[in-house]
Amino acid sequence: MSLLNQNINVGDMVEYQEGTVVSKTVIGKKTGTVTVFAFAKGQGLSEHTAPFDAMVYILDGEAEITVSGEKYTVKQGEMLIMPADEPHALDALKPFKMMLIMIRS
Length: 105
Known about the structure:
Blueprint: E1 21-29, E2 32-39, E3 44-48, E4 54-67, E5 70-75, E6 79-82, E7 88-91, E8 96-103
Antiparallel strand pairs: 1-2, 2-8, 3-7, 4-5, 4-6, 4-7, 4-8
């Protein structure tokens, strides 16, 4: 199903599922990606790096994001840009949804 030329509530694209992380790729191109995630409480992404800057926009809930050892609490309607090649991790202290935008150029 194409998402082109449609009004879409981004938060409705993924639903919470207990004990897991749900994701949906909205745009996937060589030049970048947009992915929507729903994290159940207690879920997360372990520390890793990416070769490009990545922007996280919180759609619902609240996330704890660690970048280079510094913890940030990011709430609904807020964003955080994670620099390229810096270690980062995400934790769901309570359920949250986010949109991840990565531009590869």
